[in-house]
Fold:
Amino acid sequence: MGPVSWGSMRLSELFAPTLREDPADAEAASHKLLLRAAFIRPLMAGVYTTLPLGVRTMRKIERIVREEMDATGAQEVRMPIVVPAEPWKATGRWQAYGETMFKLTDRHGRELGLGPTQEEVVTPLAAAELTSYRDLPMNLYQIGWKYRDEFRPRFGLLRVREFLMKDAYSFDRDEEGMRASYDTMMEAYKRIFDRCDLGYVIVEADPGTIGGGVNHEFMAEADIGEDLYVSCPNGDYLADAEAATPRPLELATLEDLEPLTEVHTPSAATIEAVSALLGRPASDMLKCILFDVGGRAVAVLIAGDREVSETKLARRFFPAPVRRFEDADFASHALVKGYVGPQGLADDVTILADHSVKGGRDWVTGANKPEHHVTGANAERDFRIDEHADLVQIRAGDPCPACGEPLRIERSIVVGHIYQLGTKYSEPLQATFVDENGGAKPFLMGCYGIGISRIMAAVVEQHHDDGGIVWPKSVAPYHVAVIIANRDDQRAAAEAERIYGELAERGIEVVLDDREESAGVKFADADLVGYPVQLVVGTRGMKAGTVDLKLRATGERTKASLADASQAAVDLLTATP
Structure:
């Protein structure tokens, strides 16, 4: 693909107020550099104004996304930001999103929300318009603003309340068609991220509040990324940390079990305190952690040296809200906080155990009375387990489920997520089509999201140095910066104007730095903003009949004659990544 060509610009006219110092509240490299290089400005926590340079880069990302989506046959629509509550309540997500969703009431008292995603908008649309199997398959997508009331917005564009997103939704008649649509989107996403020059991995993922079955995340590797994934050094396993499943342990033998014995454990309401008092490792302790799940009590059993994944637990009970017991909950169930054990729990308490509990025996756990624990607690003999499930948080060093090698925890930024939804939305929203036999069948759906504004930040995280941003050519706001080193040198200024004009006529996206600034400021800004090619016209070059060229990606410097300057810039741009 050739460069996107829409104009040239004099920096004396461009609204690009660069900053010399890092903003005090910026932590991530992308946050610092996008602010300093005048791509964004904050309005309030998690909400940003995009400045002209930022708009140009985001438009280029949008163009890449549109080209690849259109190539698959997907069709672009525009859906509303303001959404009615009723479809969201039908799918259970009005409750599941909770405070993360911006909610409001109109003048007529109707409940509305600001869309964080659009399944509840596009599914009724498909139900009304795609009435026959002959209308399928269909894939509809949009690029629009999304809203999520993040509790703690941070890292600039990486965790925000308002973000630009591409979301697509496929509709098929059967599972085979849904999987084919999913595979098509998988390949399109690879091409998109390759064209944006992002290093990424594709991992098995947690579906979160979107739901559904098979799903994958595209994770851009980044030191500061908040999204964790696990990887096997042998390349046998990749998964989001919240979806990763550790290798099953060997089942414990049930011979020669210890007797259940009550022991006094004064002031020992924590795993650490009990472990120290009894001289037993934390792995011998059995945590019994209580949750309120949509109004009912659920006890989760897990080894004392592990942590419960509340994300996995929430997924198990979706869409019911899940929260840890508070003091009032313990009191209402006549349980003693810090001393709860699974033995003797009432029948109305559901007891779940992580699969790892199968590998333990003779547990130390709460005695259900103040300042007492029991030793020798064993499943089946002493307490019931209603269900085993994967409920543990993965950690570095856990054995790979495929080969047993120790897993590593890596940091990343999620830039894309694709899902096989099945009938998760079509059934509750009664979205059906008529098959060839005249029967009504629910759509088999997929959904596919890409964070446009997040991609811009992720590219900067991967492409920067001490001087500033190093944009890949595909998403750079402009491709060539022609710098007048000394405005007082009229010949240098005239030659720079000529070269700038020639490049613009050839369709090159070019800026002319004609500002009344020192050469040092201009050079620093060119590096900071990250124009792929810099062409400097200065007094010394005029005497030699040459211009200086610099390739931003490598710092390589070359010279060209004044007559060949514009062609040299084009050649250098062609060769740059």
